Amino acid sequence: MDKELYKGVFVFAEQREGVIQNVAFELIGKARELADSIGEKVTAILCGYKMGEMPKELIAAGADVVLVVDDEKLEHYLTEPYAQAVTHIIQECKPEIVLLGATTIGRDLGPRLSSRLRTGLTADCTSLEIGEDRNLMMTRPAFGGNLMATIVSKAHRPQMSTVRPGVMRRRVADNSRQGTVENVTVPFDTSKFRVRLVKKVHEEKNMVDITEAHILVSGGRGVGSQDGFSKLTDLAGQIHAEVSSSRAMVDAGLIGHERQVGQTGKTVRPDIYMAIGISGAIQHLAGMEESDFIIAINKDKFAPIFQVADLGVVGDLHKIVPILTAKLRASMQ
Ligand code: FAD
User: What residue stretches are annotated with the Electron transfer flavoprotein alpha/beta-subunit N-terminal domain (predicted)?
Assistant: First the structure.
């Protein structure tokens, strides 16, 4: 393989129902950094139908080029049409690096692309850097999060990775940025389309996405029970926070998995993260240690959570949390 032929950093700009997903903006932010360090361009691949102003948003976020495949077949995500469209672009443009979000769509699409393109894919990366010989150093947790592995694709191009939402930082949008928008026509082989979307049903959920919350009140095993959990909900209500949790609370059936923070949950980066009755296992830290300000409440002064906390309170959460809630309530009156 002639690696010299492969140039540029490409991002699969995932959109759902006409809304570009945050992870796409975060990846463009990272792609910008990588591309600048090797003197290359950032290209966003945007697939869908009737995409309006979306290419402009991607340019404002840091893309130099947006390749648009606007086709009715791509209105809703289906594996085969999307895999054909993105494979076609990658084969034509030969990017050096391709980044996708580790969302349900990215996790479905990424492996199809890597197998069709006969290259590797490193999933769930937490760090991406350019190393020797322009190889991408793709770092991700291994062995249950007990060590970090850096993976390099020395012999194959493109170098592909998926990154979970919330891991990379998006840049502030700059609407004065200029870029190129190119329409791409894909020669679809519809004989390979074996799945048809019959109906889309939205699950009714009045839940906020914890990755979007500014303040998170997060509970762990120390919270203990439904009663302990309601103390957290009271506190969260006083400070307009959302409630999240460690895996222990999810396993105990006290909260849904969509609120789990950590390696097998979500990666969050709120302004304030309150870790209450959470020990700070490495798999939990992986999902929250980038938070701006961490407050930990734990009765064990040696709990590892205190090593990442900006403010630590040693004591019984069942006493501290109600006092804190009452003080906050009083201060608001
Ligand atoms: P514990 O570790 O049991 O800690 C409870 C804490 O509460 C203790 O520090 C204790 O001192 C404190 N406490 C108890 N009572 C009180 C009280 N009255 N007042 C104050 N403090 C009190 N975990 C995650 O969270 N997210 C993940 O995504 C995740 N993914 C995983 C993936 C793998 C492959 C594996 C192997 C594990 C994963 N885990 C994950 C589990 C993780 O290893 C820990 O078991 C889990 O985070 C522990 O949750 P915890 O801190 O709530 O409970």
Answer: 9-197
